[in-house]
Specification:
Helices cover 62% and strands 4% of the residues. It is mainly alpha-helical and 476 residues long.
């Protein structure tokens, strides 16, 4: 039987090569559950406005759910001549219900059907990503108490700069992923707009109720312009951008931990169940999960570029080019989700090598900026203090010493205001304790931020549990 998408206007059957070239069921079959969900909502609305009878609606929805179960179990035949998963489902419905099945597509087009299915799929995928990001935040925050007494060298230009508490590092990533989650939530708002019922591009003359369909599918809004939404893939591109940002943040973390796990840094021991070995060097413990997380970032960013190029020259409204949006966005979600799934247990399972960190913590004159600010407190202008401390660092470097090893007389020689009491601010512990500003690595500030994050994540967890319970009650 010919595809239901081909009307009587055609005088020749589709060339087999064209069928193979234009098919998308090989990748869009993952939309089947959302297609059935959207079709059931559409049928319910058609019954409400009198286009279908209640019996026809029940037949359609019952049969669609049966088809969905067959697809889920792998017992559903795939035929390339039916092009996509939407035509497969509709043809199966027609095969089983005849004319009743043929009524389902009333008041809609594949254009708005595919758009709606994809919006439903992306909405669910964004929710999954948000949950995975929350788990990763919990993993970082969960380390903070145990690592609170660990001081790490902070870096700029990959050169030792100032000391920071380890939980200050962990919370930096919690903040990055919080911005990612905010972008996910914002993207979800623009995704959660119903396009079903705009038909091909201009709407329909039939008395459908698009607001009812949107309500049934849990959409927040109904698209206001049929011509716009029939070609709109902004939500796909925005999702791809959000995923690219998440990947970039994951890549930054992965790069840092790859360095920290080297013998040269020796800050971190990675959990062995997240590492691999070498085929020839028996001593190797390689950070392959981190390396692939870093490497897959290029793939996610590349998908964003693919999508931007895809839509840049398209006129209104629908064009078949848009079929190519799915492999890219599916791949981006798949890639980011698996990276996030592995990241949380890896973070929780890693071990800071305290002895190795402490052994070299006094290298790099990490207390130099603290000394400069002590000079400022004693009335020395900032630029003068900056030059003065630079002179002391140069002296210490030449002698292979720490700033605290220089005799007090050297300080007083440079400026009479620098008496022996200035030595009290030197050393990484004194430098850490000297911090005062909001958001700094001061112990009291870091403790406050840890408590804030614990409260925030606990509240989110409680809200999520309440939401799940409500959803379960509603479905039952």
């Amino acid at each position: 039987m010919a595809s239901p998408s081909r009307s009587g206007v055609f005088s020749k059957a589709t060339d087999r090569r064209v069928e193979l070239f234009t098919e998308s069921v090989s990748f869009d079959r993952r939309l089947y559950a959302h297609d059935i969900l959207g079709s059931c909502a559409h049928a319910t609305m058609l019954a409400k406005v009198g286009i279908l009878t209640s019996d026809e609606c029940e037949q359609i929805c019952t049969t669609l759910k049966a088809i969905g179960s067959e697809i889920e179990s792998g017992n559903f035949p795939i035929r390339t001549e039916l092009e996509d998963i939407h035509m497969h489902i509709e043809q199966a419905l027609i095969d089983r219900l005849g004319d009743v099945g043929r009524k389902l597509h009333t008041g809609r087009s594949r254009n708005d059907q595919v758009s709606t299915d994809l919006r439903l799929w992306v909405r669910d995928a964004l929710d999954r990503v948000d949950g995975l990001l929350a788990n990763l935040q919990r993993a970082f925050v969960g380390r903070c108490d145990a690592d609170f007494d660990v001081i790490l060298p902070g870096y700029t230009h990959l050169q030792r700069a100032q000391p920071v508490l380890a939980p200050h590092y962990w919370l930096a990533y919690a903040e990055k992923f919080a911005r990612d989650r905010a972008r996910v939530a914002d993207c979800r708002k623009r995704t959660n707009i119903c396009s079903l019922g705009v038909a091909a591009l201009a709407g329909t003359t039939l008395p459908i109720d698009r607001f009812e369909t949107a309500r049934l599918l849990g959409f927040d809004e109904v698209a206001a312009n049929s011509l716009d939404v029939s070609s709109d893939r902004d939500f796909v591109l925005e999702s791809a951008f959000v995923l690219s940002m998440i990947s970039a943040h994951l890549s930054t973390w992965a790069e840092e931990w790859i360095l920290w796990s080297t013998a040269e840094f020796n800050f971190l021991k990675l959990p062995h169940d997240f590492c691999t070995g070498s085929s020839i060097m028996p001593q190797k413990i390689n950070p392959d999960v981190l390396e692939l997380t870093r490497g897959k970032t290029g793939r996610v960013i590349g998908n964003l570029q693919t999508l931007l190029v895809l839509i840049k020259g398209l006129p209104l409204a629908y064009n078949r080019d848009l079929q190519e949006d799915k492999p890219a966005i599916f791949d981006s979600f798949d890639t980011v989700e698996i990276c996030l799934e592995l990241a949380a247990p890896l973070v929780a399972g890693a071990t800071l090598l305290r002895d190795s960190i402490n052994e070299r913590l006094d290298r790099g004159h990490l207390d130099a900026t603290t000394l400069m600010e002590e000079c400022i407190r004693r009335g020395i202008p900032q630029r003068t203090a900056h030059h003065l401390v630079g002179t002391l660092v140069k002296m210490a470097m030449a002698e292979g010493k720490r700033l605290s090893d220089l005799p007090a007389s050297e300080y007083e020689k440079l400026d009479s205001r620098l008496d022996a009491s200035v030595l009290k601010v030197l050393g990484v512990k004194a430098a850490i304790d000297a911090f005062r500003s909001y958001g700094s690595t001061a112990p009291v500030e870091v403790r406050r931020q840890i408590d804030r994050w614990k409260t925030r994540l606990e509240a989110e967890g409680n809200a999520s549990q309440d939401s799940s319970e409500l959803a379960a009650a509603a479905s039952s």
